[in-house]
User: Fold these one by one.
Assistant:
Number 1:
Amino acid sequence: MITRVAHAAVLAALITAFPANASAATLHSGSFVMGTILEVTVVTEDAVFGRQLATQAIETAKKWEDVLTTWRPNGELAGLNASAGAGPRHVSADLASALAVMIRLSEATDQAFDPGVGPLVEHYSHPGATRPSHATAYNIREVLTLNGRTAELARGAAIDAGGIGKGIALDAIAKDLRAAGVKGAYLDFGRSSQLALGTMENGRPWTVALAGLHPGTIHGFIELDGALSTSRARAIGDETGPIIDPRTGDAITSPRFVTCCAPTATEAEAWSKALIVRGEAAALERPSRGLLGALYEDSETLRISPGFARMVVSGLEPRASM
């Protein structure tokens, strides 16, 4: 989520997975980016090179914040939103690629995830906000025309990248680390989006502890080689904002908690929001395309997919699988 929140609140949050036994601490970097804390651990044979890569990863995330933020008027996406209704606008290659991914993931999730909800994000950020009388479906495909590096937004429309901004940044960092030939890396973005590459310094897989619906809960541990994203339905007025159903304009406020594993962090982030919107019954009706596994929890049930169960090394009994 590309918002400004206090360091203390971010560091205290235990709402998602975190590494159970990270290594190579000397090749570590961290910074406040996209309104939260990004921590980078890199495993290489050369400590100096690894430290340089970790620092570079932070700079890559900051670059993507400049592209995708809507909380600063000088952000590129903020500028596109401000031009809504004013005709076509030239955008950078980075923003064009991000917009194309947003369109694809809206279609892949049957619009349970859709960044076209931008007009409702600010509305629902205020305590006591109710569903606007004009709220309808918000579909990025209907309000955005993208032709190469030319983008045009319809009047009154706005795109919000808060649902996948961290994922896009993590995937860009991972691409650079793979090209550099690192032995392994672990990227943790605000305890809600993680990405693991290769192995730890000792050759073992990255082991991740899985949090749950209730703060402080740990359900078990998985071995991760891929991306993980966790989302939680939040009350209207919460500073991070509620998750919005793009198909109706309603805010999801019932207790729901989802962790998704996918090949890329962008996919994991989109699907973790989509499964919150769809809820348990819809999530169980058919497997979610692009997912390696998922955990769903609400006030009455805890379910994990077969793919997720295969990653579990302790906890999360098979009886919970769906």
Note: Residues 47-68 form the longest helix (22 residues).
Number 2:
Amino acid sequence: MDITLFVDHQCNLRCSYCYTGDKFSRPMSMATAERAIDLGFSDGSHCVEVGFFGGEPLLHKQLVFELVRYTEQRAREMPHAPSVRFTMNTNGTLIDQNVIDVFKSVRDVEFFVSLDGARQRHDAQRRQVSGAGSFDLVMAGLQRLRDAGIRFHIAAVFGAGSAAGLGAVVSTAAETGAKSVTLEPNLRDD
């Protein structure tokens, strides 16, 4: 069974093409998340996948870490010993050593990281709340994932202004060592 936990609507970036509107913080409670995870184990599945999504789920690292531990504990308690898989959808800016340590300890995890191409293209579209670009933070997070041997994929958003440069977008993403690169059109663009 697949469970996606929408950790919070809040995000530390203000991407030019964001479709979710004004950001607000309403983090998922531990109790709600535990109920969702329990539901995932209730049907006797041989594999339970827990995905973290948001806004930016790593704004609530401690909650995410507790949920990873809770999921692993529940799997150990099950008589049929299901496998557990984690996925993290993130903008990549908050991947620090604590994130690496927690996810390196689980058997099956993949990160899906947003990177819209080389520095100029990425920073034009994916700015921090302060207005600064986020390219260097994302690249540092990807380096940590690479160094830890954690699998990751790149998702790159493109629109009318960047479609002509898709080759460069794919090249930049491929150079990160990602397992795959997905091009996602900005559906709100002309």
Note: The domain at 2-185 is CATH 3.20.20.70 (TIM Barrel).
